[in-house]
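User: Structure please.
Assistant: Input sequence and predicted structure:
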Amino acid sequence: MKRRKVLMTVALALLVLLGAIAVWVLTNVERSERPIGFQLVRATGPGGEALPIAVWYPTSADPRPTTLLGATLLDVAWVGPVAGRELPLVLISHGNGGGPGSHADLAMALAGAGYVVAAPLHLGDNVQEQDGMARAGFWSGRNAELIAAGDYMTTQWTSRGAIDPRRIGAFGFSAGGYTVLTAAGARPAMAAVARHCSGAGEFVCQVLKAGRSPLLSPQGAAGEAGFRKDPRIKAVVVAAPGLGFTFAAPGALRDVRVPVQLWAGAADDRVPLASNSDVIRAGLAPQPDYHLIAKAGHLSFLVPCRLLRPSALCSDPAGFDRSAFHREMNREVVRFFDAALGGVAR
């Protein structure tokens, strides 16, 4: 009898613990007011290799909080049917060492607003592998991968008929911001990297050195001649862009003829304003929709940390509320794309 009471007490304690864990998990999931479908697909990269892409979209299926993407738990309908027709498409380019989950909350917000969202995993420059920086053509390769993702979504994706190919936008963070700008028509002077990094201690220079980038040599720029403009991209959002100093030459941003929304963190010590966002802002005409965020650091633009909280990704300057900021930023990004691409009836 005594042993039975002990077992019942232990079982009850376990049930309470499991219930508490379930509640904690459910309160730390990324969700949308409208049901979101989700898929992981594989396109063909510019060199013939497999290019993984995460895809979010509106659906009529019931979502479940069971999909873990990176450190973020998503409340989505796995491979649910696409709901809607002639939907705009937004491509997302992550930063160095990131992945499709780096901006999962923004992807959820856009899909909840009626957009199809596609985020490729940049090859050799993601959370799993970071050895690509040593090869020639690494930066123009990012540009080609983003364009390849757009090609796949509009010509090969099983639900491509739901996309309006006349309404495509792009979002990029850090190195992804640089990638998006080149796809929108920016022409970087890659020889500027060796000059800039010979006397600057900027974070990107440290990253390039650690990655054994050929761009640190004056001759290395010759390997980065393959940047292409994608005329399908009709609007871009750029957050904390890196390598902005490569756009300092007169006319470097002249061919970016689409609306631009630019975000920067006032406390960002990785991509200093003076050599990055300020350069881009000054070179764009007309001027971008500019948002300078007080107290925001570089990592503050990554998805808010909920279920898992790796310290390397979840540290913000004192007094900064990343979750509150992202609610504001996501609303503004949706508003911007709605205005630039025509939005979705909802």
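Residues 31-341 form a domain with the Rossmann fold fold (CATH 3.40.50.1820).
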